[in-house]
Design a protein that fits this description.
By secondary structure, the protein is α+β, with helices and mostly antiparallel strands. 31% of the residues lie in helices and 29% in strands. Strands 1-2-3-4 form a four-stranded antiparallel beta sheet. The protein is elongated.
Length: 95
C-alpha cells in the first residue's frame, strides 16, 4: 500500500488557540469553541494547515449512554461528572 505523499510533508504537533484562530474562518460554525482541553495542529513547514480541538464532554448525552452500555449511569451527579471528565473528550472542531 502506498503512503500519501502529503503525509510525508505534514507533521501533527501540539497546537495552541492561535492555530485554531488562523483557520476558524473555514469552519461552518462562527463561534469559538467553548473551554477546550487539547489542540493538535497539522503543520506544513511552519504553516498551520489543519487543526482539531478537543473539549470536555457534555454532562448528559443519551447516545453516549447507549454506546457505552450506560457505563456512566447509576452514579450520583458529582461522581458521574468526575468520571466523565476523567475518561471522555469530545471533538469540538476539525478544520
Amino acid at each position: 500500500m502506498k503512503t500519501c505523499t502529503v503525509l510525508k510533508q505534514i507533521k501533527i504537533v501540539d497546537g495552541v488557540i492561535s492555530d485554531y484562530k488562523s483557520l476558524s474562518h473555514f469552519h461552518y460554525r462562527s463561534s469559538r469553541p467553548g473551554p477546550y482541553e487539547k489542540i493538535y495542529a497539522a503543520k506544513l513547514d511552519s504553516e498551520t494547515v489543519g487543526v482539531i480541538v478537543y473539549s470536555l464532554p457534555s454532562p448528559s448525552c443519551e447516545l453516549r449512554n447507549i454506546a457505552t452500555g450506560n457505563y456512566f449511569l447509576g452514579l450520583d451527579r458529582r461522581s458521574q461528572l468526575a468520571m466523565l471528565n476523567k475518561k471522555v473528550r469530545t471533538i469540538s472542531r476539525v478544520i
